Q: What sequence folds into this?
């Protein structure tokens, strides 16, 4: 099969893997080398089908020996199959880089013959790029569950980032939909990568010689099995704590196979995916715990309401917050106030006492925040807002207006054009939209 025919098959097969963010690398060029993996050298553009524009995102092979029921490349599916050799991938990467098509490589693979064989092929590919072509650009590869620790170590010393997809939220779901995979086979190499990353940081190795210097990630499928948002969020929180992951990616289940154990969804659960990403952000940067955001009586997020707003409505006893007195972490819990705007508030109030006119210039989303804050004890327009029903009605109205694309279960692409009306532009300029 010709290289371009393989590329068409294997690039299309890779589009369901969303965990190819390229931030965090600082690998610089050397004499007689090509490419640069600096943070500023990698962009984050996405096509409508999930491919990262700036990275060559492909599978090494889609000829899988596993028969996972949700996967388009499952053994029992009759789909076109192709396999790249390590030399073909290396040559393709360099030729694309020289043409300025790409800035780096995201390389994954189905399991060919065995986990160890697949990892050996991945290693040979990256070895050619790093040592023969002296390519210093960003490289992200998948670690194959079940592969030997030695192969994971060898590959981890060459790449910027590695990821192992945990796939499903529980062992029972894994047994149901991916019976050839085991939880231990995923978590053991994840622990190995985490440990090695920590060791090389302690040894203060140069960035280029560190083990997986841009960290590791994982991907979790949403909607293929009946686990609640609470269970998913608990799992993510545990992964962050135990393995110091950079990111957990959530992928809305896309129905590509027919099977009695798979749900029949007309459209992917994109709103649910979006809420889990928002909640994940709250876990990583806002100091929230999974048990605060959800509990057994509220195991799932309201798809029409931001998780922080939903938490605030259930905890009105924590409000209102006075922006002139509250500490940084208290401000972070206010809907409409993010990390950057909270820092701006802290800095600004050292110079003068803040009022609502001042807050508009600090990046606060006042259409959410006004219900939960005061300025020196005074509410916006001197009204009293602490009424749960009134606040929820207004927040739901705002959310419905701001999520038309997600409600239609469509993903925005780099090439989508938004055409606001003249009325919307006027409202946006005046701060009323």
A:
């Amino acid at each position: 099969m010709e290289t371009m025919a393989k590329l068409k098959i294997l690039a299309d097969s890779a589009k369901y893997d969303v965990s190819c963010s390229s931030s965090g690398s600082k690998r610089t060029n050397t004499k007689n080398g090509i490419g640069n993996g600096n943070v500023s050298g990698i962009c984050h553009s996405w096509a409508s089908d999930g491919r990262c524009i700036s990275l060559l995102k492909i599978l090494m092979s889609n000829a899988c020996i596993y028969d996972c029921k949700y996967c388009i490349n499952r053994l029992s599916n009759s789909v076109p199959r192709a396999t790249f050799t390590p030399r073909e991938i290396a040559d393709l990467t360099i030729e694309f880089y020289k043409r300025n098509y790409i800035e780096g490589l995201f390389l994954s693979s189905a399991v060919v013959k065995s986990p160890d064989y697949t990892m050996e092929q991945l290693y040979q590919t990256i070895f050619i790029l790093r040592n023969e072509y002296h390519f210093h650009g960003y490289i992200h590869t998948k670690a194959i569950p079940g592969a030997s620790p030695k192969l994971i170590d060898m590959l981890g010393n060459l790449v910027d980032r590695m990821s192992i997809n945990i796939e499903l939220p529980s062992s029972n779901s894994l047994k149901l939909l991916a019976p050839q995979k085991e939880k231990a086979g995923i978590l053991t190499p994840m622990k190995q990568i985490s440990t090695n990353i920590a060791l090389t940081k302690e040894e203060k190795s140069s960035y280029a010689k560190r083990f997986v210097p841009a960290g590791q990630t994982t991907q979790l499928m949403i909607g293929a099995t009946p686990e609640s948002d609470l269970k998913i969020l608990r799992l993510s929180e545990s992964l962050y704590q135990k393995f110091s992951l950079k990111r957990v990616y959530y992928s809305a289940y896309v129905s590509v196979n027919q099977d009695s154990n798979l749900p029949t969804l007309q459209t992917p659960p994109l709103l649910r995916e979006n809420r889990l990403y928002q909640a994940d952000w709250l876990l990583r940067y806002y100091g929230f715990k999974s048990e605060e955001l959800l509990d057994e009586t509220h195991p799932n997020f309201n798809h029409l309401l931001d998780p922080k707003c939903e938490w605030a409505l259930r905890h009105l006893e924590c409000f209102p917050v006075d922006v002139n007195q509250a500490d940084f972490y208290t401000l972070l819990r206010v809907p409409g106030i993010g990390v950057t705007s909270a820092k701006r508030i802290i800095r600004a109030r050292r110079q003068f006492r803040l009022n609502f006119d001042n807050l508009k210039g600090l990046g606060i989303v006042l259409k959410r925040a006004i219900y939960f804050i005061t300025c020196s004890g005074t509410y916006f327009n001197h009204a009293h807002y602490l009424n749960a029903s009134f606040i929820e009605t207004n927040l739901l109205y705002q959310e419905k207006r701001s999520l038309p694309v997600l409600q239609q279960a469509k993903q925005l692409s780099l090439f989508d054009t938004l055409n606001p009306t003249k009325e919307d532009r006027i409202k946006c300029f005046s701060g009323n939209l």
Observations:
- The two ends are 54 Å apart (CA to CA).
- DSSP finds 17 helices and eight strands in the chain.
- Residues 3-293 form a domain with the TIM Barrel fold (CATH 3.20.20.70).
